[in-house]
Amino acid sequence: MDILLIGGLWLNASVWDRVASALEPLGHRAVPLTLPGQGDGSVSATLDDQLATVLAAVDAASGKPMVVGHSAACTLAWLAADRRPERLAKVALIGGVPTVDGQPYADFFAVRDGVVPFPGWGPFEGPDAADLDDAARREVAAAAVPVPEGVAKATVRLTDERRFGVPTVLVCPEFTPAQAREWIDAGDVPELAQAKHVDFADIDSGHWPMISRPVELARILAEAAG
Following CA atoms 74, 80, 83, 84 in sequence, which dihedral angle do they give, to the nearest 10 degrees? Predict the structure, then answer.
């Protein structure tokens, strides 16, 4: 199966290199995506531009792919399910949940000169980054790509309820499956509360398992792909 890999804020396609290498021997074709504004040099990219890139990869895939979104890009993966519900085998969400219709995509951090720069490790101290050593933190910070304002502040638009029929797996890194179920049951994650098929996978890591646990993450994704 083709597995499309979408990194969250500040990440380019190279963050998936070790996951991709581990997926290939497991019988899957890994397709890390370079998003407009996050690796192609564009500072004027929009969320629509990023979604167009994801949909182009879905349309070019061999058979029905699994789309994997990390962190904020869980919403991008969910948007792909909204726009191409008949084309997807599954959606995998790592360390995040889909934003609801009408809300900003990722309006979490300050905008400077039209972009959202990586804010440093302060906001992520605790479970998010506890498993990243100093070398890994320096590597991530050095490679971080400022995200265009037109991506972070864009309004999410969901239109096709067939998205709720796309099988979904929520990979739980800095939180547990039990916590995720509680959030869904409490109504805090409306999109997943309406999804018909949601599985949960636990991984003992912080928010960036593709960096700290790439082989284990690849195994989880391969199992999800079936």
Answer: -140
If phi > 0 it is left, if psi is from -120 to 50 it is alpha, else beta; for residue 89 that is alpha
Per the DSSP assignment, residues forming a β-bridge with 116 are: 147
Structure tokens at 20: 């991709």
The predicted structure's pLDDT at residue 42: 84
Question: Is there a contact between 210 and 15 (Cβ–Cβ < 8 Å)?
Answer: yes
Q: Domain range for residue 199? A: 2-225
Quick check: 147 and 9 in contact, CB under 8 A? yes
Rg of the chain over CA atoms, in angstroms?
Answer: 16
Cβ of 177: how many Cβ atoms within 10 Å?
14
CATH number at residue 154: 3.40.50.1820
Both tokens assigned to 140: 């991530």
Look at residues 188, 197, 189, 199 and name the one whose alpha carbon lies nearest to residue 223. Answer: 199
Q: Per-block average pLDDT, block size 10, for the chain (226 residues)?
A: 97 96 97 94 93 98 97 98 98 98 97 95 96 95 96 98 98 98 97 98 97 98 96
d(CA 163, CA 184): 17
Residue 152 CA neighbour count, 13 Å, CB half? 20
Question: Which pLDDT value is given to residue 40?
Answer: 85
- Cα angle 223, 70, 154 (rounded to 5 degrees) comes to 145
Q: How many domains does the chain have?
A: 1
Tell me, what's the pLDDT at 143?
93
Among 96, 93, 70, residue whose Cα is nearest residue 170: 93
DSSP-derived letter for residue 153 is: T
